[in-house]
Amino acid sequence: MPDIKIRRAGKNDLAAIGQLGASLVAEHHAFDAQRFLAPLPDIEQRYAEFIGRQLDKTDVVVLVAERDGSVLGYTYAGLEGPDFMALRGPAGAIYDIIVDERARRQGVASALLEAAFAALSAKGAPRVVLSTAQKNGSAQSLFERAGFRRTMIEMTRELD
User: What is the per-residue pLDDT across 100-114, written as a single tens digit (0 to 9) for each?
Assistant: First the structure.
């Protein structure tokens, strides 16, 4: 993929990340409107502001994939210590990964994952964990091809 460049995200990328984050929220809300956040009218701005606050943290990795100066996708990951709630030792965690719909199935997500693995490994992560929506079969296939195995299943029950 010589025309795709993976690099650390910067402040100039936040508008594109906000748009991608808004599409991530909308996609998940469509999977299960009771479980996932609704896409609020200002979600792009709120998402961009949130990621903007993450950029300078030493335990966080925010990467973008770009082609010809246009952001095609991003990933947001971080280091986590031992987590007794999850019965897990220290790990890198991928919180977000999304590619613009028009750039999917071109290896962009795989390139973002590999770059995130390298960045998390360089920060000392012994493993990487992530969660994926039950109905997001294409993402699950991507993660399995990247070597992930299923270890937990989240279950949700509404109380109303």
Answer: 988 898 899 999 999
